[in-house]
Write a structure and sequence with these properties.
Elements: H1 2-11, H2 17-51, H3 59-62, H4 65-81, H5 85-94, E1 98-100, E2 102-111, E3 114-122, E4 132-136, E5 151-156, E6 160-164, E7 171-176, H6 183-187, H7 191-199, H8 219-224
Helix pairs in contact: 2-4
Length: about 230
């Protein structure tokens, strides 16, 4: 079995980090432009129709402005909390990509700012890998089926990191679900490993999300859903 894993790993070639980031920034740009155009149509369309085309200024003429404004606010909300590209890029600047033959999706749930998955990415046995929260770094909500055939990981399993699909270049940002429970294991790590995690922005229990009053999913919810 170990020989099979070794041969599979050696046959894999790590994706180019610049191509991975470029692909995900394009996905983010498409996500933003598509929503911007829709907002412009809903908000600007009635204005043009009234002032340029001479359409009567009635309730039904201007009503599209309302959903347009809500859509614009929600787009900003999604971009603020549902995008992790800068954080993922920082991780990739400090950690090399390592092939991981086992990516086990444990669950997932839609939240106000996207879709958060729980998974284990392990190069050995499943018990070795902490349970992770994972979010598509470019803001999309789809799970890439490519991960089931293995993926590339950068980061530290006790601090978090990123997951890269070798085929689609899907990039996911990860943080441990049970951060506090891993504190004793992190305390045993070397100073160099802590410093590397700090430079990569992984040294604190930071999972950016809206305040609890928005009624969105939290890390505790993720743990309880397993």
């Amino acid at each position: 079995m170990s020989n099979e894993i070794h041969s599979s790993t050696s046959a894999q070639e790590a994706p180019d980090v610049r191509q991975v980031l470029s692909s995900n920034y394009r996905s983010l740009a498409f996500f933003a432009v598509r929503r911007l155009l829709l907002c412009a149509l809903l908000i600007g369309g009635p204005v043009v129709a009234i002032n340029v085309l001479g359409v009567p200024n009635t309730f039904w003429t201007v009503i599209p402005i309302v959903p347009g404004m809500f859509l614009a606010i929600y787009a900003v909300f999604r971009l603020s909390f549902g995008v992790r590209l800068l954080a993922a890029q920082r991780v990739l600047q400090h950690f090399p990509l390592t092939y991981c033959p086992q990516v086990m999706r444990k669950g997932g749930r839609s939240v106000a700012y996207g879709r958060v998955f729980t998974l284990k990415a392990s190069a050995g046995t499943e018990d070795d890998a902490p349970l992770m929260l994972a979010l598509n770094a470019s803001g999309t909500t789809k799970w890439s089926g490519d991960f089931e055939q293995g993926a590339w990981v950068a980061g530290d399993p006790l601090f978090g990191g990123v997951l890269v699909s070798p085929k689609s270049h899907t990039l996911m940002f990860m943080k441990p679900v049970h951060w506090d429970q891993l504190a004793s294991r992190r305390a045993e790590l070397s100073a160099d490993r802590h410093e590397l995690a700090m430079r990569a922005g992984l040294d604190n229990n930071k999972w950016r999300q809206p305040p609890a009053r928005f009624g969105v999913w939290t890390r505790r919810d993720a743990a309880e859903s397993e």
